[in-house]
Each structure stands twice: as C-alpha cells, then as structure tokens.
Amino acid sequence: MSGQLLQVTWLPGDDRLRGRCHCGAQAEAGEPVAMWEWLLAHPDHPAGGPATPDEAATLPRPPAHLR
C-alpha cells in the first residue's frame, strides 16, 4: 500500500473519528482501533464503515448545547 494515503481525523466537537481510504470510501467510528482496522482492510472494507458497531454509535447523542 506504499504511497497511498489513509486519513483519520477527529470530528470537531465530538468523540467520533472520520476515516478516509485512498479509494475514496469514508466512514465514522468511535474507536480508533475499529477505524484503522476498517481502513487497513482495503479493498474488502464495508462501504458503511466498521462492521461492528461501537458503543458510542448505539447510544443516543445528547443535545448540542450539552456536548
């Protein structure tokens, strides 16, 4: 995978990560390990993001004024 860019960024004002694969696929996750596993699984990563939902994704998000 030499010379191909993988990118993980923190979403502003949130605990979530956004990953971008060199193929253009993007996903969000709450756990860095899940995000990197998803990215490194190219070309077999699922289009929607990491296959296993993390706890942060299953909990309701608090209103914006409480974050």
Can you walk through the features of this model?
By secondary structure, the protein is of the alpha+beta class. It has one domain. Helices cover 19% and strands 18% of the residues. The chain has two helices and three strands. The chain has helices spanning 32-40, 55-58, and strands at residues 7-10, 17-20, 26-29. A three-stranded antiparallel beta sheet has the order 1-2-3, with helices on one face. The model is unreliable at 53-57 (pLDDT under 50).
Number of helices: 2
Number of domains: 1
Biggest pleated sheet: 3 strands, antiparallel
Strand content: 15-25%
What are the secondary-structure elements, in order, as H or E? Answer: EEEHH
Region (Disordered): 43-67
What's the arrangement of secondary structure elements?
Layout: E1 7-10, E2 17-20, E3 26-29, H1 32-40, H2 55-58
Antiparallel strand pairs: 1-2, 2-3
Key features?
67 residues, alpha+beta, 3-stranded antiparallel β-sheet, 3 strands, 19% helix, elongated
Task: Please outline what is shown here.
The protein has 67 residues and is an alpha+beta fold. Helix content is 19%, strand content 18%. Residues 43-67 are annotated as: Disordered.
